[in-house]
Specification:
With about 190 residues, the protein is an alpha+beta fold. It is about 35% helix and about 25% strand. The protein starts with a helix and ends with a helix.
């Protein structure tokens, strides 16, 4: 199932970046419980606001859809959309939210993950639009899949911080100082 593989891949990518840089944070999958609506697929915990994240993951074949439809790609329970439930949870928890869309593209193109800020998703939802268009999704921070994995670097993390929903947006919290890397080796 592509969705669960994508979630696992994101968790590994974040945790690999944290291990490599010495940043104190952890990413993990938010498992769905039976009879309970799932709120976000991946969570990232950190004392730094910039890495206190909730990620809703969607993996789509770009040749079959022009964007993400609220009726098709998000769950509905008792007439309430997943977007509304997750927006309430973000408000209560104080996390920064992203819709992470994996664009599965035919060869020779590489798969790519786009990090859409949650405020953009919610804005499309409350205005009654049926879809988040692909051109808006592809204008957000992205990371290509290489060698079967997503590899986050300092440039990607810095760009992602610029798109956070809440302040502070301090990129030094996610990009390590050079001495931090060397301190781990000693």
């Amino acid at each position: 199932m592509p969705g669960q593989e994508f979630e696992r891949s994101l968790v590994h990518s974040f945790n690999n970046y944290f291990d490599l840089t010495g940043i104190h944070a952890i990413a993990y999958r938010h498992y769905q419980m039976r009879y309970q609506p799932q709120l976000f697929d991946v969570l990232v915990d950190s004392r730094a606001n910039e890495l206190y994240l909730a990620l809703e993951c969607k993996s789509v074949d770009t040749s079959s859809v022009p964007g993400l439809y609220f009726k098709k790609h998000f769950s509905w329970k008792n007439g309430i959309c997943q977007v509304a439930r997750e927006t309430d949870w973000l408000t209560q928890s104080g996390r920064n939210g992203f819709l992470v869309v994996e664009a599965r593209r035919p060869k020779p193109y590489k798969h790519c993950a786009f990090f859409v800020p949650w405020r953009v998703v919610y804005r499309y939802f409350i205005t009654g639009k049926p879809i988040i268009p692909s051109d808006h999704i592809t204008s957000c921070p992205s990371c290509e899949k290489r060698g079967g994995a997503y590899t986050f670097d300092d440039d990607f993390m810095e760009e992602m911080v610029k798109y956070l929903d809440s302040y502070p947006k301090n990129s030094s919290a996610v990009i390590p100082k050079k001495w931090r890397k060397h301190a781990k080796e000693v």
